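Structural prep section.
Before we set up the soaks we want a predicted structure of the protein with zinc ion in place, mainly to decide which crystallisation condition to try first. Input record follows.
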Amino acid sequence: MTTRAVVVGAGGLGGPIALALGAAGLELLIVDPDVVELSNLHRQIQFTTADLGHPKAPRLAGLVVGRGGQARAVVDRFTAARADALAADADLIVDASDDPATKFAVADWAVTSGRPYVIAAALRYGGNVMVGAPGLACYRCLFEEPDREAPSCADAGVLGPVVGAIGGVAAAVAIGLVRGERGLAGALLAFDDLRAVADPRIVRFAARRDCPACARAPISPFERPVKLAEAR
Amino acid sequence: MPTIRIPSQLRMLTAGAADIPTAASTVRAALADLERLHPGVSARLFDARGELLPFIRLFVGSDDIGSRRGLDTELEARDELAIVPAIAGGR
Ligand SMILES: [Zn+2]
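Run finished without errors. Recording the tokens verbatim:
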């Protein structure tokens, strides 16, 4: 049976994630509203100067297909309003966007639709990978709402290889999730500074009683709360 | 002595320091210490009412302080208090 995944973001994180998931045999839908710019190339190594000015999603989908995988592209933003139309048949969704609102849209949709999901982020020298699965405390339990003033790569910068490393981890845990591996489900992997320490801090957290996403989840994280010490 | 792990986004407020030792015995006291040493950090962690900002989480080792005693969670000599902010980036 084909496993379908939506990859939201076709940039520095989305590149390695899509190539890895495509090579693992997943059928992909890649969603990204942007075009390739010169300032992207140092970290978005899937693109070359030949891609400048072209939309990222179809270019990346083309690379996946060129390597024997299956991928389609949508040049658009992933929002709550479009989530069902974009992801209804997905078995997994991976956020590789650089935008807090998109991360929450992906996580909220995954939680309320009962799908496993991975939220990846990289900034400066480190990054976070949150591994979500039905019935567990969610991304919105962890971070209640977006930091509207959070710096993005465009203004704070990111070391090129850091997005590759974080994207690789996100892809690996995503493949694990669709294969039924739950070892890291519900965990946040926080990589502080990859120049100095390769190991992430792996943390778990309880579901928040007033979490609006978990309140709509088909499998409630409140009915059988994960025992944190057990889950580790 | 416990240490406070500063995320890279806040290190411009700690003169680049990543690990700040503290003599404090609770999370709350450790963060007050941090503010005394490096004024301005608190405003990036707490709102005007003294509530932790929604996009900041605190962990002692790998334990969410919410699963222990919140800001009153005790710190022991070898504990590391980690400040983990939500980040978005990497597109
Ligand atoms: Zn939740």
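Observations: Chain B has a mean pLDDT of 93.
Flagged for discussion at group meeting.
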